[in-house]
Amino acid sequence: MRLRLLPTIALLLACGKPPSATSANGAPRGEVWLRPAQVTQAQIKVESVELRPLPSKLITTGRIAFDDLKVAHVFSPVTGRVTEINADFGQKVKKGQALAVIDSPDLGQAYSDLLKAQADLTAAQHDVERQRDLASAHASSSAQLEVSEDNFHKVQAEMARAELKIKLLRTSKGDVVNERYVLRSPIDGEVVGRNVNPGVEVQGMLSGANVTTELFTVGSIDEVWMLGDLYENDLSKVKAGDKVEIKAVSYPDSFHGVVDYVSQTLDPITRTARLRSTIDNADHRLKPEMYVTATVNLGERPALAVPRSALLRLQDQWIVFIQAGRTEAGLLHFVPRPVKIGADEGDLIEIVQGLEVGEQLVTQGAILLSSQV
Fold it and tell me: How many CB atoms lie within 10 A of CB 102?
C-alpha cells in the first residue's frame, strides 16, 4: 500500500518544492510549505518533543574467572616420584578422591621420626619417675630431678611435632603412612588442569624448596565470576545489586547476573577498580580466562529522545524536520534541523544537541519532506 501511495505523495508535495530561491507558494529555499490536506494525505505525523525515560548503561570489558571458593590448586606436600595418575582432564572428582600416587622417602622419614619420638618419650618418662623416687628417698639432688623433667618436656614437644607431621601427611583416617603417598582432591569439582605425568620427580611444599609445581587444578564452573574494570570517573555510578548483561564473542546470546562486589582499592597501574558479578554457568559455556563485554544497567534517566523514524542521515550529519508553525496563508511550515545523537536504545535515539522540549517534530514522513528541500 505504501508503494502505491508514493507517486501520489510526490505529486502532492510537488507544490512545496521550490524551482529556484522560492517555490510557487512562496516557500524559501530549504523549507517546505504544505497545506494541511497535503500533510494528511502524505501520512506525515508530527509529535511534540519530550523527555523520555532511557536506560542508563555502563559498558566495560571483563574476563571470566573461577569462584575463589570453588577452585583448588593442588600441590604435593612431599618430595618424590609420581608413580600413578588417577584423574585426567575433565574428570569429575569428589573430595578425598585420589588424583595421583607419589613414592616419597619423606613419608618413611616422618614415620621413623614418630617412632623415635615415641621411644624417647618413654625413656624420658621412666627417667623422671626414677629421679622422683630417688629424690623422695633423699638419694638424688633436686637439680638432677629438674634436668630430667626439662628433658621430658622437650621430648614431649618433639613427639607432638612428629604427630602433627604424620597427621598432615595422612589425608584420610584410612591412610597408612608409608613411602606411598596418595595425593587427594581437597574439594568436589572437575579436573581442569594437570601438570604432571608418571615418572616425574616433584618437589614437596614441606621440603623447603623455593619453587614447587602445581600438580592439579580442581574446580567447579557451575557458577563463575565475571571480573570487570571500572575507571575512577565511573565508581560513583555502580553499586551492588545493579544488573549486568554479559556477551562473549563465542555465543550470540547474553548471560545475566548482578554486581555483587566493587573493590575499595584501585590498581596502581591501570587506575581501575575491580567489578565482580557471579554468573550462573550450569551449561559450562563460559570458560575461565574468557574475555567478555559487560553492560551494567544503572537504572533509568530522563533524556530527550525521538523515534528512530524521525532521523535522516544526509552526508555526514543527522537531521530532523520541525514544524515551525503556519504561514499567513495557513500553510504548514517545515524546516530541516541538524542534530547530534547520543545513546541508541533501539526504537528511541537520544538527542544531545539541536532540539528543545516542546518543539513539533516530524516522526513519520521526514524522508518525503527531504525530497522537497
Answer: 26
Residue 123 grid cell: 625413656
- pTM of the prediction? 0.60
In this structure, is the dihedral angle defined by the CA atoms of residues 74, 77, 79 and 84, taken in order, positive or negative?
negative
Task: Tell me the percentage of the chain whose pLDDT exceeds 70.
Answer: 88
**Cell triple for 182:** 596418595
Cβ-based neighbour number of residue 42 at 10 Å? 22
How many CB atoms neighbour CB 185 within 10 A?
21
Domains of the chain (ranges; CATH) run 2-54+302-370 (2.40.420.20), 58-69+220-301 (2.40.30.170), 70-104+180-219 (2.40.50.100), 105-178 (1.10.287)
Please list the alpha-helical segments (H only) found in 214-353.
none
Look over the chain and give the mean of its residue pLDDT values, rounded to a whole number. Answer: 84
Q: Using one digit for the tens of pLDDT, what is the confidence trace for 144-178?
A: 888 888 998 999 998 888 888 777 776 444 455 56
Task: Supply the pLDDT for residue 257.
Answer: 94
DSSP secondary structure of 182-196: EEE-SSSEEEEEE--
